[in-house]
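Recall the central idea of this unit: under ordinary conditions, the amino acid sequence of a chain determines the structure it adopts. In this exercise we apply that idea directly, starting from the sequence alone.
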Amino acid sequence: MLRFSSSLKKVQPSQAGERLDRASRYRHRAMPDWERRLHEMMRVTWPCESSLEFQALWPSVSCRANGNVHKLGAPADNDDGEIGLSRAIWCLTRHLQPRTVVECGVGTGLHARFVLEALALNRAGHLYSIEPPAADPASRGLVGLAVEPRAAQRWSLFADSSRRALPELLSRIGMVDMIVYDSPGLNHETHFEINLAWSALKPGGVMVVDDIDVNGAYQFFIERHPDYRALVCGAEPLRPGGPSPETNRQFAILFKTQAPR
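Accordingly, the structure predicted from this sequence is:
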């Protein structure tokens, strides 16, 4: 069942001058065939049957997540999740069958919903999500709205910043199989959280990091860690006629190797 914990203190907002610039400043070379490569790394034939499951589920889940954004009067920035990223998270969960998944950054709960639906089909696993309390009522109403009550049986949701909640959560649950990091923040905060999450990731586990083009933490991470295999992926826009591949959002999938390369 869903357990919403607010026992951890809320972190004070950062100074205005430190806010994250959403412009693409850290462009990476995206792999046009990342999906095929991903399945090769998982030793699964591509196209896979799980992608068909995703296609059947996507319309209803995305409509629930993004359609309600405008009904609640929230800013357009709260539109959640490119379809490519969601499909990657779905296939990773279905094929790798993780028992313990940690998510930093929930938003409307689109990605959480796909993880939870996949865990239900796997008949095993639990998702632990962290989302800071929102300041305005409209944004508070968006958190996790894509997750239907029937899908929340394997979900624990914590209301706090990742920087404060993540160390305590990891100390409770130990090593994890999969991490989804979609928590926009300052470079140094994101770097701290990614490194901490990586230290708790089991060898052979996977971490998905969104928005690597607007935050330098991913670049800083790969320059200092030898124990990974990475795919740089271009997230597909939700709307036809959206951003071009050159300006599109980017995310990374990192597999933790058994030993340093």
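The domain at 3-7+26-238+247-256 is CATH 3.40.50.150 (Rossmann fold).
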